[in-house]
Amino acid sequence: MIKILANALIPVFVGLLAGYLAGLRKYVDNKNVKTLIIFVMSFAVPCALFATIARTPHQLLWGQGKIALVLVVVYGIIYAVTYFSSRILSKDSARDSSVLALTLTFPNIAAVGFPLLEAMYGAQQNIVVVVGIAVGAITITAITLAILEGGTAEGRALSTAACVRISMWKALKKPVFWAPMLGIITVIIGLHLPSYLDRSLTLFANATAGSALFLTGLVVSAQRFELTWGVMWAVFVKNILQPALCLGIARLLGLPLDLTRSVVLMTAIPCGFFGIVFGKHFDVTPPVASSGLIASYVVGIFSLAGWIIVLTYLH
Protein backbone atom coordinates (compact mmCIF):
# COMPACT_ATOMS: atom_id res chain seq x y z
CA MET A 1 0.00 0.00 0.00
CA ILE A 2 2.83 2.41 0.85
CA LYS A 3 4.43 1.83 -2.54
CA ILE A 4 1.08 2.43 -4.29
CA LEU A 5 0.56 5.69 -2.40
CA ALA A 6 4.12 6.81 -3.12
CA ASN A 7 3.87 6.07 -6.85
CA ALA A 8 0.53 7.88 -7.09
CA LEU A 9 1.15 10.95 -4.93
CA ILE A 10 4.86 11.78 -4.84
CA PRO A 11 5.18 12.65 -8.58
CA VAL A 12 2.12 14.91 -8.28
CA PHE A 13 3.44 16.85 -5.31
CA VAL A 14 6.96 17.03 -6.73
CA GLY A 15 5.51 18.79 -9.80
CA LEU A 16 3.49 21.15 -7.60
CA LEU A 17 6.50 21.85 -5.36
CA ALA A 18 8.73 22.60 -8.36
CA GLY A 19 6.31 25.28 -9.58
CA TYR A 20 5.81 26.64 -6.06
CA LEU A 21 9.54 27.01 -5.37
CA ALA A 22 10.18 28.48 -8.82
CA GLY A 23 7.59 31.16 -8.12
CA LEU A 24 8.60 31.71 -4.50
CA ARG A 25 12.28 32.17 -5.37
CA LYS A 26 11.35 34.31 -8.39
CA TYR A 27 13.02 31.98 -10.90
CA VAL A 28 9.75 32.32 -12.80
CA ASP A 29 7.41 35.32 -12.65
CA ASN A 30 4.40 34.11 -10.67
CA LYS A 31 2.43 37.29 -11.21
CA ASN A 32 2.26 37.08 -14.99
CA VAL A 33 1.37 33.51 -15.87
CA LYS A 34 -1.04 34.24 -18.72
CA THR A 35 1.26 32.77 -21.38
CA LEU A 36 1.73 29.52 -19.48
CA ILE A 37 -2.01 29.29 -18.79
CA ILE A 38 -2.71 29.70 -22.53
CA PHE A 39 -0.25 26.92 -23.36
CA VAL A 40 -1.70 24.52 -20.80
CA MET A 41 -5.40 25.24 -21.29
CA SER A 42 -5.45 26.01 -25.02
CA PHE A 43 -2.87 23.55 -26.33
CA ALA A 44 -1.65 20.80 -23.98
CA VAL A 45 -4.92 19.93 -22.20
CA PRO A 46 -7.14 20.11 -25.34
CA CYS A 47 -4.72 17.82 -27.21
CA ALA A 48 -4.82 15.36 -24.31
CA LEU A 49 -8.63 15.49 -24.22
CA PHE A 50 -9.02 14.97 -27.96
CA ALA A 51 -6.40 12.22 -28.19
CA THR A 52 -7.85 10.32 -25.22
CA ILE A 53 -11.40 10.37 -26.61
CA ALA A 54 -10.37 9.65 -30.20
CA ARG A 55 -8.57 6.49 -29.04
CA THR A 56 -11.50 5.31 -26.91
CA PRO A 57 -13.58 2.42 -28.30
CA HIS A 58 -17.11 3.40 -29.30
CA GLN A 59 -18.88 1.26 -26.69
CA LEU A 60 -16.61 2.39 -23.85
CA LEU A 61 -17.21 6.04 -24.71
CA TRP A 62 -20.99 5.74 -24.47
CA GLY A 63 -20.60 4.10 -21.10
CA GLN A 64 -19.53 7.43 -19.56
CA GLY A 65 -23.05 8.87 -19.36
CA LYS A 66 -23.50 7.93 -15.70
CA ILE A 67 -20.16 9.52 -14.81
CA ALA A 68 -21.27 12.77 -16.42
CA LEU A 69 -24.56 12.63 -14.50
CA VAL A 70 -22.77 12.01 -11.17
CA LEU A 71 -20.44 14.95 -11.79
CA VAL A 72 -23.23 17.31 -12.85
CA VAL A 73 -25.06 16.59 -9.57
CA VAL A 74 -21.92 16.81 -7.41
CA TYR A 75 -20.63 19.98 -9.06
CA GLY A 76 -24.08 21.56 -8.88
CA ILE A 77 -24.63 20.82 -5.18
CA ILE A 78 -21.16 21.90 -4.00
CA TYR A 79 -21.25 25.04 -6.16
CA ALA A 80 -24.69 26.04 -4.83
CA VAL A 81 -23.78 25.33 -1.20
CA THR A 82 -20.55 27.32 -1.44
CA TYR A 83 -22.06 30.21 -3.37
CA PHE A 84 -25.07 30.75 -1.11
CA SER A 85 -23.05 30.19 2.10
CA SER A 86 -20.68 32.90 0.95
CA ARG A 87 -23.54 35.24 0.05
CA ILE A 88 -25.67 34.68 3.15
CA LEU A 89 -23.17 33.93 5.93
CA SER A 90 -20.15 35.99 4.83
CA LYS A 91 -22.15 38.71 3.02
CA ASP A 92 -19.79 38.47 0.04
CA SER A 93 -20.65 39.93 -3.34
CA ALA A 94 -22.02 37.72 -6.09
CA ARG A 95 -18.73 37.93 -7.98
CA ASP A 96 -16.59 37.02 -4.95
CA SER A 97 -18.94 34.16 -4.12
CA SER A 98 -18.82 32.80 -7.68
CA VAL A 99 -15.01 32.78 -7.73
CA LEU A 100 -14.92 31.00 -4.37
CA ALA A 101 -17.54 28.49 -5.51
CA LEU A 102 -15.66 27.65 -8.72
CA THR A 103 -12.36 27.34 -6.85
CA LEU A 104 -13.80 24.83 -4.38
CA THR A 105 -16.07 22.95 -6.77
CA PHE A 106 -13.81 22.33 -9.77
CA PRO A 107 -10.90 20.06 -8.74
CA ASN A 108 -7.54 20.56 -10.41
CA ILE A 109 -8.28 17.68 -12.78
CA ALA A 110 -6.26 19.12 -15.66
CA ALA A 111 -3.03 18.99 -13.65
CA VAL A 112 -3.52 16.15 -11.18
CA GLY A 113 -6.20 13.96 -12.75
CA PHE A 114 -4.22 12.32 -15.55
CA PRO A 115 -1.09 11.32 -13.56
CA LEU A 116 -3.02 10.34 -10.42
CA LEU A 117 -5.70 8.14 -11.99
CA GLU A 118 -3.22 6.56 -14.39
CA ALA A 119 -0.91 5.67 -11.52
CA MET A 120 -3.77 4.22 -9.47
CA TYR A 121 -6.08 2.56 -12.00
CA GLY A 122 -4.32 2.55 -15.37
CA ALA A 123 -4.41 4.67 -18.53
CA GLN A 124 -7.90 3.39 -19.43
CA GLN A 125 -9.32 5.62 -16.68
CA ASN A 126 -8.12 8.78 -18.45
CA ILE A 127 -11.55 8.94 -20.08
CA VAL A 128 -12.99 9.73 -16.62
CA VAL A 129 -10.66 12.73 -16.40
CA VAL A 130 -11.83 13.91 -19.82
CA VAL A 131 -15.47 13.73 -18.73
CA GLY A 132 -14.66 15.61 -15.52
CA ILE A 133 -12.99 18.48 -17.36
CA ALA A 134 -15.69 18.69 -20.04
CA VAL A 135 -18.58 18.70 -17.54
CA GLY A 136 -16.92 21.39 -15.42
CA ALA A 137 -16.15 23.54 -18.46
CA ILE A 138 -19.74 23.69 -19.71
CA THR A 139 -21.53 23.96 -16.34
CA ILE A 140 -19.96 25.68 -13.34
CA THR A 141 -17.31 27.50 -15.38
CA ALA A 142 -19.97 28.99 -17.66
CA ILE A 143 -22.11 29.96 -14.63
CA THR A 144 -19.15 31.72 -13.00
CA LEU A 145 -18.34 33.59 -16.20
CA ALA A 146 -21.96 34.72 -16.44
CA ILE A 147 -21.89 36.11 -12.87
CA LEU A 148 -18.53 37.82 -13.41
CA GLU A 149 -19.63 39.31 -16.74
CA GLY A 150 -22.87 40.52 -15.15
CA GLY A 151 -20.91 42.51 -12.56
CA THR A 152 -18.99 44.59 -15.10
CA ALA A 153 -20.19 47.96 -16.35
CA GLU A 154 -21.00 46.41 -19.73
CA GLY A 155 -22.72 43.47 -18.07
CA ARG A 156 -24.98 45.65 -15.93
CA ALA A 157 -26.27 47.23 -19.11
CA LEU A 158 -27.35 43.82 -20.43
CA SER A 159 -30.18 41.57 -19.41
CA THR A 160 -29.52 38.42 -17.40
CA ALA A 161 -30.33 36.29 -20.44
CA ALA A 162 -27.83 38.25 -22.53
CA CYS A 163 -25.09 37.77 -19.91
CA VAL A 164 -25.74 34.05 -19.79
CA ARG A 165 -25.74 33.83 -23.59
CA ILE A 166 -22.43 35.73 -23.86
CA SER A 167 -20.72 33.67 -21.15
CA MET A 168 -21.94 30.39 -22.65
CA TRP A 169 -20.59 31.41 -26.04
CA LYS A 170 -17.22 32.25 -24.47
CA ALA A 171 -17.18 28.86 -22.76
CA LEU A 172 -18.07 27.06 -25.99
CA LYS A 173 -15.20 28.77 -27.82
CA LYS A 174 -12.60 27.49 -25.37
CA PRO A 175 -10.50 24.57 -26.67
CA VAL A 176 -11.09 22.63 -23.41
CA PHE A 177 -14.74 22.39 -24.47
CA TRP A 178 -14.67 21.87 -28.24
CA ALA A 179 -11.64 19.53 -28.26
CA PRO A 180 -13.52 16.70 -26.46
CA MET A 181 -16.59 17.40 -28.60
CA LEU A 182 -14.42 17.01 -31.71
CA GLY A 183 -13.04 13.78 -30.26
CA ILE A 184 -16.58 12.43 -29.79
CA ILE A 185 -17.43 13.27 -33.41
CA THR A 186 -14.27 11.44 -34.51
CA VAL A 187 -15.41 8.30 -32.66
CA ILE A 188 -18.99 8.55 -33.98
CA ILE A 189 -17.94 8.70 -37.63
CA GLY A 190 -15.28 6.03 -37.11
CA LEU A 191 -12.39 8.22 -38.24
CA HIS A 192 -8.94 6.78 -37.58
CA LEU A 193 -6.24 9.40 -37.14
CA PRO A 194 -3.14 9.15 -39.34
CA SER A 195 -0.09 8.10 -37.34
CA TYR A 196 1.68 11.43 -37.93
CA LEU A 197 -1.32 13.38 -36.57
CA ASP A 198 -1.64 11.05 -33.58
CA ARG A 199 2.05 11.51 -32.78
CA SER A 200 1.75 15.29 -33.13
CA LEU A 201 -1.13 15.38 -30.65
CA THR A 202 0.76 13.07 -28.31
CA LEU A 203 3.69 15.51 -28.15
CA PHE A 204 1.43 18.17 -26.64
CA ALA A 205 -0.64 15.70 -24.62
CA ASN A 206 2.48 14.33 -22.93
CA ALA A 207 3.32 17.84 -21.74
CA THR A 208 -0.02 18.21 -19.95
CA ALA A 209 0.71 16.69 -16.54
CA GLY A 210 4.11 18.29 -15.94
CA SER A 211 3.24 21.75 -17.24
CA ALA A 212 -0.14 21.87 -15.50
CA LEU A 213 1.35 20.77 -12.17
CA PHE A 214 4.12 23.35 -12.50
CA LEU A 215 1.56 26.04 -13.39
CA THR A 216 -0.57 25.18 -10.37
CA GLY A 217 2.42 25.46 -8.04
CA LEU A 218 3.31 28.77 -9.66
CA VAL A 219 -0.22 30.14 -9.15
CA VAL A 220 -0.28 28.97 -5.52
CA SER A 221 3.08 30.66 -4.81
CA ALA A 222 1.58 34.05 -5.72
CA GLN A 223 -1.35 33.76 -3.29
CA ARG A 224 -1.42 35.20 0.20
CA PHE A 225 -2.34 32.82 3.00
CA GLU A 226 -4.43 33.59 6.06
CA LEU A 227 -5.94 30.84 8.22
CA THR A 228 -9.55 31.63 9.12
CA TRP A 229 -12.68 29.65 9.93
CA GLY A 230 -13.81 30.31 6.37
CA VAL A 231 -10.64 28.73 5.00
CA MET A 232 -11.03 25.67 7.23
CA TRP A 233 -14.64 25.30 6.10
CA ALA A 234 -13.53 25.64 2.48
CA VAL A 235 -10.95 22.85 2.87
CA PHE A 236 -13.54 20.59 4.53
CA VAL A 237 -15.99 21.17 1.67
CA LYS A 238 -13.40 20.49 -1.03
CA ASN A 239 -11.26 17.72 0.40
CA ILE A 240 -13.83 15.80 2.45
CA LEU A 241 -17.43 16.71 1.63
CA GLN A 242 -17.20 16.72 -2.18
CA PRO A 243 -15.68 13.22 -2.58
CA ALA A 244 -17.99 11.86 0.14
CA LEU A 245 -21.00 13.28 -1.71
CA CYS A 246 -19.67 11.85 -4.97
CA LEU A 247 -19.30 8.42 -3.39
CA GLY A 248 -22.88 8.50 -2.13
CA ILE A 249 -24.34 9.58 -5.48
CA ALA A 250 -22.23 7.09 -7.43
CA ARG A 251 -23.47 4.25 -5.25
CA LEU A 252 -27.04 5.51 -5.46
CA LEU A 253 -26.90 5.50 -9.27
CA GLY A 254 -25.29 2.06 -9.39
CA LEU A 255 -22.00 3.16 -10.98
CA PRO A 256 -19.62 0.18 -11.46
CA LEU A 257 -16.96 -0.17 -8.77
CA ASP A 258 -13.99 0.70 -10.99
CA LEU A 259 -15.65 3.87 -12.25
CA THR A 260 -16.83 4.78 -8.74
CA ARG A 261 -13.26 4.61 -7.47
CA SER A 262 -11.99 6.77 -10.34
CA VAL A 263 -14.65 9.48 -10.16
CA VAL A 264 -14.52 9.73 -6.34
CA LEU A 265 -10.72 9.99 -6.34
CA MET A 266 -10.97 12.64 -9.04
CA THR A 267 -13.30 14.78 -6.91
CA ALA A 268 -10.90 14.35 -3.94
CA ILE A 269 -8.22 16.24 -5.90
CA PRO A 270 -7.56 19.68 -4.32
CA CYS A 271 -8.83 23.00 -5.68
CA GLY A 272 -8.30 24.03 -9.28
CA PHE A 273 -6.90 27.39 -10.31
CA PHE A 274 -9.69 28.33 -12.75
CA GLY A 275 -11.51 30.43 -10.16
CA ILE A 276 -8.41 32.41 -9.18
CA VAL A 277 -7.45 32.98 -12.82
CA PHE A 278 -10.95 34.14 -13.82
CA GLY A 279 -11.13 36.33 -10.72
CA LYS A 280 -7.86 38.07 -11.56
CA HIS A 281 -9.16 38.85 -15.03
CA PHE A 282 -12.16 40.62 -13.47
CA ASP A 283 -10.20 42.09 -10.50
CA VAL A 284 -12.01 39.77 -8.09
CA THR A 285 -9.73 38.09 -5.54
CA PRO A 286 -11.65 36.80 -2.48
CA PRO A 287 -9.17 35.99 0.34
CA VAL A 288 -10.90 32.73 1.28
CA ALA A 289 -10.47 31.43 -2.28
CA SER A 290 -6.73 32.23 -2.33
CA SER A 291 -6.03 30.85 1.14
CA GLY A 292 -8.37 27.91 0.58
CA LEU A 293 -6.45 27.00 -2.57
CA ILE A 294 -3.19 26.79 -0.61
CA ALA A 295 -4.68 24.98 2.38
CA SER A 296 -6.41 22.48 0.11
CA TYR A 297 -3.06 21.26 -1.22
CA VAL A 298 -1.43 21.09 2.21
CA VAL A 299 -4.31 19.05 3.61
CA GLY A 300 -4.53 17.19 0.29
CA ILE A 301 -1.26 15.38 1.04
CA PHE A 302 -3.13 13.50 3.75
CA SER A 303 -6.72 13.56 2.48
CA LEU A 304 -5.80 12.11 -0.93
CA ALA A 305 -3.88 9.30 0.75
CA GLY A 306 -6.88 8.68 3.00
CA TRP A 307 -9.32 8.52 0.09
CA ILE A 308 -7.04 6.17 -1.82
CA ILE A 309 -7.04 3.81 1.14
CA VAL A 310 -10.82 4.06 1.56
CA LEU A 311 -11.42 3.38 -2.14
CA THR A 312 -8.96 0.47 -2.16
CA TYR A 313 -11.10 -1.36 0.38
CA LEU A 314 -14.39 -0.30 -1.18
CA HIS A 315 -16.55 -3.23 -2.33
Descriptive report:
- The chain has 315 residues and is mostly helical.
- It has a single domain (2-312), classed as Na+/H+ antiporter like fold (Up-down Bundle).
- Helix content is 79%, strand content 0%.
- Helix 2 runs parallel beside helix 11, helix 2 (34-54) packs across helix 12 (195-205) and helix 5 (94-105) packs antiparallel against helix 8.
- The longest helix has 26 residues, at 287-312.
Features:
315 residues; Na+/H+ antiporter like fold
Order of helices and strands: HHHHHHHHHHHHHHHHH
CATH architectural category:
Up-down Bundle
Helical segment tally?
A: 17
Rg for CA atoms: 19 Å
Summed up:
The chain has 315 residues and is mainly alpha-helical.
Task: List the topology elements.
Elements: H1 2-24, H2 34-54, H3 58-62, H4 65-88, H5 94-105, H6 109-121, H7 126-138, H8 140-150, H9 153-156, H10 160-173, H11 175-188, H12 195-205, H13 208-221, H14 229-252, H15 257-267, H16 274-281, H17 287-312
